[in-house]
Amino acid sequence: MDKRLPLPYPSRGMRGRSRRWLPLLAMTLVAGSGCAGRPVEPGGDGRALHVITVDPNGVPVHPTTYQELSAASFDQQLDAIERAMAGQRNLLLFVHGGLNNREAGQRHADALRRPMTDDGYYPLFLNWNSDLLDTTWQDLVHIRQGREARILGPLSFPLAALIALGTGLVRTPMVWGHMISSDLNGSGLYDFPGKTNSLALQEEWRRLWEGRDPAAVAIEIGLDRTPPAAGAAAGVRYAATLPSKLLVSPVIDGFGKGAWRNMLRRTQMLFHREDEFDVRDKLASMPGPGRRRDLLVRGPQGAAHRLFDRLRAHLERHPEARLTLVGHSMGTIVINRALREFPDLPVRDVVYLAAACSIDDFRTSVLPYLARHDHVRFYNLTLHPSAEVREWQAALLDLTPRGSLLVWIDNFLSDPATTLDRTLGSWENLMQAAHVIPAALRPRITLKAFGIDPAARPALPGTHGGFTDPEVRFWCPEVWAVPGRPPRAPCARPHP
C-alpha cells in the first residue's frame, strides 16, 4: 500500500464540524438518491473480486479497509477479477448514483451480489464516493473553477458560503415557483404546458408503437393505481408541511448546486484523477528526467478508466462473454463517459434506471455508441410521471420539497438551458425529446415507465431509490421488456 496522500475533501474531523452548519442541507438532500437495498453484514469474503471502490479523486482504494491502493496493488486486484471472470458468460457492471458515501455503496453491493449471482451473472460494482457532506464541503472549501485551490479555497470559504446562501435567498421567488408548479402537476389540479405537451406526445408515440410504424420506438407506461385514501392523505400532509417546504427549498437551491456540481466533478475524476492535472508534488520528488517524462506520457489514471480498459481487453479475449452495463441515477453519467472514452467496448445491453444524466449527454454518448454497434440494445426505465413529482421523504416527515432527485435536479440543482439539458430519467422530459433518437436506432431502444401499484408483486419501483431494491430484480431482462418486445434471454431464475 502506498502512503495515503492529502485529499481535498474533509477529514472525519472536518465532517464533524461541517455538521454544525450543514444539518439542514444533509437532511433535505440525503434521501434523494439513496441505495434501496436491505443492509447486510459487511463481510470481506470475495468482495475484492466484485467491488472496485474509488475515492473522491479517482484513486482506487481497498473495498473493505478503504486504504489507498498503489498502481501495482490495483493491477493485482484487476488481475484477480479477470481470473474470476474467466469462463463466465454473463457479466454485469452496476454503477450507483449520487448522494452515497462509500459505506452505503458497499452495503448495497453486498446486498445485490448474491441475487445477481443466483440469476446467472458475474456482478461488478463501481463504488464511488458521492457523499453529500464531502461534496458540499469540498465545493465550498477546496475547489475553485474546477481546480483544487490549496490556499485561496480555505481563505475564501466564508465568502463561498455566503454566496451560496445569498443565491438561494435571492432566487427564492423563482424557486417557489418551480416547486409549486411541480406540485400542482402532481396533484392533478392543474396541468402546466410541459405536462400537457408530454401527455400528447406520449399518446402519439404509443400509437406508432402499437401500430408497428417503422418510425416507432418501443414504449410502455404503467397505470397509476394510487388508492384514493392515499392521495387524500398526501394532500392533507402537503398542506400541513407547506411552510416548511417554502423555508427549505431556497437552502437546497443555494447549497445544493455546489454539491451537485462537485458530484459531477467526481464522475470525471473516476476517469481522469486529480493528480493527472496537479503534479507539483510528484515532479518535485522525482529524481531524474526519465521518471518525469513517464509522468508526462502516461495515459488516464482514474480507477474507472483502468477498469473499463481491462473489461475491453477481457471481452476481446473472450468474445463469448456478454457485458451488461446498468447505471442508476448519476451512475448513468459515469456510463455515458465510459461509452465516449471506450467506443469499441463490446456491450450487449445498456440499462438506465432513473437516469440523472441530461438528454443531451445521452444524445452525444449513447446514441453514437449504438450507431457503431448494431447488436446493442438500450433500455431507459423511469418512474411513472406522477410518482416522480409526488415522491416525498417519509423519514423527514414530508418537510422537504416533494419530487424525486430528478425533479430536484431540474428545479433546483442544475440550470438547464433547453429541454435537452433536463434529466433523461424524467418521463415528462423524455416524451418531449424522444424525437432526437434517430429512426435507424429506435428498433433497439426501449422506453418504459413503471406503473404505481402498492399491491404489485413483484414490487414496482415507486421512488427514485427504489429502482435498485433487490426485490425489483432490476438486472433481469424481463423487467426491461415491454409488450411486443420480449427479452432476448430471461434471468436464470423464474421471475414472479
For the structure shown, list the relevant keywords.
single chain; 496 residues; alpha/beta; two-stranded antiparallel sheet; 47% helix; disordered N terminus
Question: What topology emerges from the helices and strands here?
Answer:
Blueprint: H1 12-18, H2 23-29, E1 51-54, E2 60-61, H3 71-85, E3 90-95, H4 102-118, E4 122-128, H5 132-141, E5 143-144, E6 147-148, H6 152-155, H7 157-170, H8 172-187, H9 193-210, E7 218-221, H10 228-269, H11 280-285, H12 289-297, H13 303-317, E8 322-328, H14 331-341, E9 349-353, H15 359-372, E10 377-382, H16 385-390, H17 405-413, H18 427-433, E11 445-449, H19 477-480
Parallel strand pairs: 1-4, 3-4, 3-8, 7-11, 8-9, 9-10, 10-11
Antiparallel strand pairs: 1-2, 5-6
Helix pairs in contact: 2-10, 5-10, 7-10, 8-10, 9-18, 10-17, 14-15
